């Protein structure tokens, strides 16, 4: 992941210059190039597809937009772009920007976010854990298919890891899964998923 320290962006500047470019998100005014690779996009698409199957099977009024930004209400110069986001359709009418841009301001309609870890693993394991918990997002998945995270996050030896964070009393309780493990989701109790199922070819 590369950082661009020379210029700080406001939220409005970021939207005007990079809002429709899936490579970038904004954290505290700093432009972050997420440098998505083919395998990264393959894993993201596979995760979104499996979640969508569960949404249909459970007859939930939820959707997974192709692209979406989150504007945290307490952060003036932050626009988060999760790899996968699940929204409650019923709340979209109350979103002030949705009709013009795929931007979510009211986090209470966000049911789940998933981040596929790349070289910006510090954001996924630290900053976004705090940010998404503060936004009261019930479930956050961290898919570290290359085992890039720090030892304090994924253990030693490093290996592919799938972390499910469940929000309990405003804090994420994290459960890690390795290759071969059956993953448990609290939002999707009937989900049949292993990290092996979403590994890139």
From TrEMBL:
Origin species: Atlanticothrix silvestris CENA357
- Name of the protein described by the UniProt record: Uma2 family endonuclease
Entry GO MF terms: endonuclease activity
UniProt entry keywords in alphabetical sequence: Endonuclease, Hydrolase, Nuclease
Write down the superkingdom of origin: Bacteria
Residue ranges occupied by any Putative restriction endonuclease domain in the UniProt entry: 15-195
């Amino acid at each position: 992941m590369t950082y661009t320290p020379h210029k700080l962006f406001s939220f409005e500047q970021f939207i005007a210059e990079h809002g429709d470019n899936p490579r970038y998100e904004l954290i505290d005014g700093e432009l972050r190039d997420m440098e998505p690779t083919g395998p990264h996009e393959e894993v993201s698409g596979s995760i979104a597809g499996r979640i969508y199957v569960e949404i249909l099977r459970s007859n939930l009024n939820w959707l997974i937009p192709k692209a979406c930004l989150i504007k945290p209400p307490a952060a003036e110069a932050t626009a988060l772009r999760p790899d996968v986001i699940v929204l409650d359709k019923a709340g979209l009418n109350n979103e002030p920007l949705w009709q013009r841009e795929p931007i979510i301001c009211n986090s209470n309609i966000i049911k789940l976010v998933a981040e596929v870890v790349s070289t910006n693993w510090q954001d996924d394991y630290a900053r976004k854990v705090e940010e998404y918990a503060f936004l009261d997002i019930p479930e956050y998945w961290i898919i570290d298919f290359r085992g890039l995270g720090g030892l304090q996050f994924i253990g030693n030896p490093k290996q592919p890891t799938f972390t499910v964070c469940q929000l309990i009393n405003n804090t994420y309780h994290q459960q890690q899964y390795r290759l071969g493990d059956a993953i448990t989701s609290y939002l999707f109790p009937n989900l049949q998923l292993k990290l092996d199922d979403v590994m890139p070819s």
